[in-house]
């Protein structure tokens, strides 16, 4: 695929889309492609490029891994109706929870989520006769952080959409965005007339809330974090701050703290809020959100989410910290 980072200054997102679609037509021909969608920018743009190239031969699957944001499964399926994509929703929550049971190491959790994701796709791919390709929305930062690229580098963390597939799947991988950064992906999305409500979505990790819950993952912890995250993200949107930050999310910490609710002593969970500004995700600065906003969100979380009695705000930049905590 063409590389937006290495093209001349006269190169545009429109020409990238045009050239990539033509390359996909030549590469894929009449072959069938299975594509995993997440609702995010990367998979949406990649799917749209492939759809323009092969039309009805693209079969999209959106997996509910039980680690999505509150109401996200239904919202994502609804958002794709206007793009003309053939999308099937798959409820696989229990399979992911079983795979994660007892795991606390971040890399072990990522690998368990990735393996389960592949297992679900293997099951779904057998329902589509003659599928030869798996489409993915891998972008350049995913590759850099997962493997050594063009020289010796340390693997920072594995990404579930990087590194290939097991031999038994018999599917080749097609990644039209593999050499683009996030800002370039959004520009290509605009050239393809993808709606802003999709292009403007904050990045969300493939492993979802599984790596925003530090320690072991349980359905109960997921529910707590979903409620916290919904208050934070909706607060950003309602305050006109959502589009001013590059990514925001909430983390459930593996500690408890003493608090007071009414006349009672509590010993409950701590959550951390994280918001950053960035261009491509390779470096990021913590977002200087208004104190009044943080105070309001903190109060709402503590008052409405049972089991949480303390909220902290992450003021670390990348590097040395990563955007996600795991």
Layout of SSEs?
Blueprint: H1 13-28, E1 32-37, H2 41-54, E2 58-64, H3 72-79, E3 87-91, H4 93-100, H5 106-125, E4 131-135, H6 140-146, E5 172-174, H7 182-191, H8 196-199, H9 219-238, E6 247-261, E7 264-277, E8 285-286, H10 291-304, E9 308-313
Parallel strand pairs: 1-2, 1-4, 2-3, 4-5, 7-9
Antiparallel strand pairs: 6-7, 7-8
Helix pairs in contact: 1-2, 1-7, 2-7, 4-5, 9-10
Structure described in brief:
With 326 residues, the chain is an alpha/beta fold.
Gross morphology: globular
Q: Total number of helical segments?
A: 10
Element order: H for helix, E for strand: HEHEHEHHEHEHHHEEEHE
**Which strands sit side by side, in order, in the main sheet?**
3-2-1-4-5
Average pLDDT figure = 89
Q: Using DSSP, what is the number of strands?
A: 9
Which range best describes the helical content: under 10%, 10-25%, 25-40%, 40-55%, 55-70% or over 70%?
A: 25-40%
Quickly give the structural class: alpha/beta
Provide the β-strand percentage band. 15-25%
């Amino acid at each position: 695929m063409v590389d937006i980072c290495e093209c001349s200054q006269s190169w545009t997102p429109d020409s990238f889309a045009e050239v990539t679609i033509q390359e996909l037509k030549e590469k894929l021909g009449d072959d069938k492609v299975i594509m995993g969608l997440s609702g995010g920018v990367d998979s949406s743009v990649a799917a749209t490029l492939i759809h323009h190239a092969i039309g009805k031969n693209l079969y999209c699957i959106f997996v509910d891994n039980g680690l999505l944001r509150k109401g996200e499964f239904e919202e994502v399926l609804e958002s794709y109706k206007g793009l003309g994509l053939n999308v099937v929703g798959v409820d696989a929550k229990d399979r992911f929870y079983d795979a994660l049971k007892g795991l606390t190491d971040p890399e072990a959790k990522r690998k368990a989520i990735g393996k389960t994701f592949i297992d679900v796709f293997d099951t779904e791919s057998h329902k589509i006769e003659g599928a030869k390709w798996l489409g993915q929305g891998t972008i350049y930062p995913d590759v850099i952080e997962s493997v050594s690229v063009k020289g010796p580098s340390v693997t920072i963390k594995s990404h579930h959409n990087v590194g290939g597939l097991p031999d038994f799947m018999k599917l080749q991988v097609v990644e039209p965005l593999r050499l683009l950064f996030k800002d370039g992906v959004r520009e290509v999305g605009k050239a393809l007339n993808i709606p802003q409500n999709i292009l403007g979505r904050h990045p969300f990790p493939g492993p979802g809330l599984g790596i925003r819950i530090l320690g072991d993952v349980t359905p109960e912890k997921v529910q707590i974090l979903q409620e916290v995250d919904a208050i934070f993200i909706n607060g950003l949107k309602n305050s006109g701050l959502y589009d001013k930050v590059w990514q925001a999310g909430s983390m459930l910490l593996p500690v408890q703290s003493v608090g007071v609710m009414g006349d009672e002593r509590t010993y409950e969970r701590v959550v951390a809020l994280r918001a950053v500004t960035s261009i491509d995700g390779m470096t990021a600065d913590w977002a200087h959100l208004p104190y009044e906003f943080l105070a309001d969100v903190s109060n709402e979380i503590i008052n409405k989410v049972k089991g949480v009695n303390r909220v902290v705000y992450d003021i670390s930049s990348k590097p040395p910290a990563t955007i996600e905590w795991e």
